[in-house]
Amino acid sequence: MKTKSRQKNEKMHGHLLPCCDMCKKTPASGLRGGIKIEKIFLCKECEWKIVAAESNRPDYDNLLKKVKKLWRINLMRQARRRNFIGKD
Ligand SMILES: [Zn+2]
């Protein structure tokens, strides 16, 4: 049963283990396996992909698109939080 194993998985990992917003993987070492930038979390692997990116590489455009998408997620999460807290 797929749903059952997924529930078990969530229970095992709880909410403490972050999920990388770029590759959707959970680093084995949890929060220490990556960095949190405002509202987004990046695993070390993806962090290094961005850090080591060179503009003359063929996959650079693709990476840039992913980073832009991540930043939109970050802004959306911030906006959602603002709506939730402050209603003036
Ligand atoms: Zn990642």
Q: What structural class do helix, strand and pairing data support?
A: mainly alpha
The CA-CA distance between the termini, in Å, is: 47 Å
How large a portion of the residues is in β-strands, by DSSP E?
Answer: 5-15%
Largest sheet: 2 strands, antiparallel
Instruction: Return the string of H and E elements.
Output: HEEHH
Radius of gyration: 16 Å
* Residues in helices, as a percent range: 40-55%
How many DSSP-defined strands?
A: 2
Summarize model confidence as the mean pLDDT: 83
Tell me the number of helical segments per DSSP (H or I, 4 or more residues long): 3
Give, in spatial order, the strands making up the sheet with the most strands: 1-2
Low-confidence stretches: 7-11
- In the residues, how many domains can be counted? 1
Give the overall shape: flat
Distinct small molecules? zinc ion
Write up this protein.
Strand 1 and strand 2 form a beta hairpin. This protein has helices at residues 2-13, 44-51, 60-85, and strands spanning 34-37, 40-43. The longest helix has 26 residues, at 60-85. It has one domain (2-85). With 88 residues, it is mainly α. It has a two-stranded antiparallel sheet. Helices cover 52% and strands 9% of the residues. The protein is flat, with a radius of gyration of 16 Å. It is built from three helices and two strands, in the order αββαα. The structure holds zinc ion (ZN). Residues 20, 22-23, 25, 42-43, 45-46 line the site of zinc ion (ZN).
